[in-house]
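Components:
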Amino acid sequence: MLPEPTLNSYLMLSAVLFAIGTAGVFLRRNIITILLSVEVMLNAVNLTFIAVDRFRGLVDGQIMVFFVITVAAAEAAVGLAIVIALFRHKETLTPDVFTSLKW
Amino acid sequence: MDALLFWILAAVTVASAVLVIGQRNPMRSVLLLIVMFMALAGLYVTLGSPFAAVVQIIIYAGAIMVLFLFVVMLLNVPTEETPIGRQARLLGGVGPRRFGALLSAALALELFWALGRLGAVAMPAGDTPETTVKAIGLRLFRDYAFAFEATSVLILVAMVGAVILARKEPQP
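Structure:
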């Protein structure tokens, strides 16, 4: 029989997802996939909010999730606009090529 | 039953997250990320937050991922490019990437260590109470009214910024 999930199980799952997201940001060499890894990290945080909400019997975490999703939408819109502008200039999505701001 | 559901959904979530960062093709990454969002929405339902689950599916999987799909299809760069040129090799060689992987492994270990010290904390017993949309709405529009309005300004700024950034520069 599988063990009943405790609060720790949810927090561990969230930690695993967050670490996977950071690994994606470090390892991938495609701006779009890096943005997707950031979404994975945001979702890990959302899971923490909802699990603690259930634990404490509150609704505030769900409201925070609502705000996080809104900010993620704004981030995706601006980030993808920057990706399009960068692609128009350099014809590539590899982040190592974008060095115009490097001194 | 709930325990089985949790472990299945957790396994699907972690597996699809690993596959998301393991793909060279961003198209597959986006589609796998939608699978991850669905599994997470299932977890939210088992945690008694159906509102968050629905918002997750409609806004995240529905709207944000479609935006990503649009851009992936628009730019038509199917697979990750191998680094070309000396400069790219200098910046993105094996060294920094390996160091980054080590850093994220260290992060995971540290989080596990911290959570292990917490000790097992059981969820409150009994059936999962479902939070109603009414409760969320009352809290959102009373106590978080300012944050809610600030969010609308944020969305407006993001919209204007996205339009200006992605606009084609007028030819002189």
